[in-house]
Amino acid sequence: MPGSGSASPAPRKRADARRNEEALLEAAAAAFVAAGIDAPVRDIAAKAGVGVGTIYRHFPTRADLVVAVYRHQVEACAAAGPALLAGADSPYAALVRWIDLFVDFLVTKHGLAEALQSDDATFASLHEYFLDRLLPVCAELLGAAAGAGEIRTDVEALGLMRGVGNLCIGAGKDPRYDARRMVGVLLAGLRVR
């Protein structure tokens, strides 16, 4: 209704535009794993099956693309928690599987840590976004496993996520170091015996 003062909803993207964006995010994520965040845009476009111009329509700058990939992957990790909890044999099994996804997320962020520490304002809110989205999921999984008597009750989500994160630092730099194995040791230490 014109003149009513109510804001109109944001326009919805066409289905093909949503598919292109999804393909770009997946292709960029794979390219960032293989070559870091400086992967050539033309390679990302080719992998997504779109033209370079399509990337720039969706993501005007490389920083915009990096942020979108990061947020997309955080959202996938956040959405996985409740789904795993609903479908797992036990809350502990759901927690272990979610932490495995979290490890995948952490060890594939080649170059992102440097970008997050840069002076680019585009990256400033990503760490807070990461914590806001993933801490509640981890807390829910921990609470369910503790409530079922499967794990200790004195572990908080932030402590567990930091512990896992610290075990993943440098995972790709030394082939003798197995971050996933060390995270498994950490998770085994949560069990009630």
TrEMBL record:
Keywords: DNA-binding, Transcription, Transcription regulation. Residues 18-77 form the HTH tetR-type domain. Residues 40-59 bind DNA. The keyword Transcription applies. SUPFAM superfamilies: Homeodomain-like, Tetracyclin repressor-like, C-terminal domain. GO terms for molecular function: DNA-binding transcription factor activity; transcription cis-regulatory region binding. It comes from the Bacteria. PANTHER family: HTH-TYPE TRANSCRIPTIONAL REGULATOR BETI, HTH-TYPE TRANSCRIPTIONAL REGULATOR RUTR. This is Helix-turn-helix transcriptional regulator. It comes from Actinomadura bangladeshensis.
